[in-house]
Amino acid sequence: MDIRDELIEHVPRLRRYARALINNRELADDLVQDTLERAIARTELFRPGTDLRAWLFTIMHNIFVNQVRKSAARGAHVSVDDESVPETDYAVPATQTSALEVRDLDYALQRLPMEQREVVLLVGLEEMSYADVALALDIPIGTVMSRLSRGRERLRALMAGSVPRANLKVVR
Amino acid sequence: MSEQNNPVTQDEIHAYVDGTLSEARRADVEGELERNPELAARASDFFALNNLLHERYDRVLDEPLPARLRIAAPAAEAPAVRTARPAANWPRFAGLAATLVLGVGIGWGMHFGVSGMSASGGATAMAGGGELRAVSADSSMRFAQQAALAHVVYMPTVARPDAMDDSQEQDFVKWLANRLGTDVHAPMLSKSGFELSGGRLLTGDDGGEVAQFMYHNARGERVTLCISHRKTSANTTAFKLYQDGPVNVFYWVDGDFGYALSGGIDRKALLQLAHDVYAQLTPR
Q1: Size of interface A-B (CB pairs under 8 A)
Q2: How far is B108 from chain A (nearest CA, A)?
């Protein structure tokens, strides 16, 4: 089967991930387009039998990192590191509606350092295994776990009070 | 229990949330969560975050692809990405790629993708010439949430260890059918090792009545099936997966009825059961 046939199947998911990563439809689709173009230009580098999805996310990651780096150099991108945002500033009362929760989610995600956002999304949204995330981002698995942990803790703090608790008791 | 010499780590809490923790450690982690409310609250928030991410972004899977993201057929020599592909092709791939639907569907329900998981009021993803009417995402999603809740809230109170005997079962089912105003019956899942162990009538949040059937197998695993008589009829939807912590719920709508099968068992096994239920409860 031609790799393009397989690529097509991955496009909606690449878009979903990019949208969560960037939160701007045009820019997110730009990222997907760049990713697809690079993938198609380099199909000979893809080893058949390996995980196409991981390969595509690796390409997307590399493009994204480069873009962020470039725009940071131009001063257009405001990066927020762990310490600079007091987490309590973003606590939202528990009575908010779900529409607001959803907007809070966009907002909170954008307050995450890029490295943490990628891991939180690849695991939570894309449902990749930790090993695949390590592979796609080319980082050790221990780094995946620490970014996941810090990212989730931070999101939790940013959205404090607005995330509906599952509150389910475990039964088997 | 081995938690004394093998304490539960932070990584394991995440693995538990993401469903990748080994079976062997599950009991230890759950024990720790029971003992440590602060940890349980965190794990619960992490679950909720994962759900929220899907609620917020899964809708992107159903959006029509802009022309610039359509990939040309392999034979075409033209510049690949920017070449348009017939727009009608995209929903098939959106459906195939949908993680939550696990690639299953009921016939042409396949086209439905994961629209039901979106958080917006009415999921309106249309495909295949518009023969499908979108079911309100809110109501079917809420039904799945209720079913998950009913599963965990009511299961522990089912004290009957053995399957009901035949005559009890018939009486119960007859009574239930009268209440629901239809000749619903409890599907037989004994082929998969699950026996009916009880049932009850719940009130749905729209005031309608919901029949809940409980099943268990020889290993003590339990699943519950909720059937609600919907106030508004809708066309058949694909199976959708709702996950709330360790409880998976496959739910679908078929005409006047909504179905939700919940259980803490393996997703594939639960899906197989859902197919079984669907096959038995759908008038052919």
Answers
A1: 151
A2: 18
Per-residue pLDDT of chain B (284 residues; tens, 9 = 90+): 444 558 899 999 999 999 888 888 888 888 888 888 888 888 888 888 888 898 889 989 988 888 888 876 544 333 334 333 333 332 323 332 222 222 222 222 222 222 333 233 333 333 333 323 333 445 667 777 777 766 665 544 343 434 455 666 666 666 666 666 666 677 888 888 888 777 777 766 666 777 778 888 887 788 888 888 776 666 667 778 887 777 888 888 877 778 889 888 888 888 889 888 888 876 54
Length of chain A: 172
Q: Which domain holds residue B183?
A: 137-281
Q: For chain A, say whether B18 makes contact (Cβ under 8 Å).
A: yes
Cα B271 to Cα B104, B109, B135, B190, distances in angstroms = 9, 16, 21, 15
Closest-CA residue to B224 (of B114, B139, B146): B146
Chain B contact for A172 (CB, 8 A cutoff): yes
Q: Compute the C-alpha angle B22/B26/B29, nearest 5°.
A: 125
Interface of B with A in 190-249 (CB under 8 A): 220-222, 244-247
CATH of A87-158, picked from 1.10.10.10, 3.90.78.10, 3.40.50.620, 3.40.50.300, is 1.10.10.10
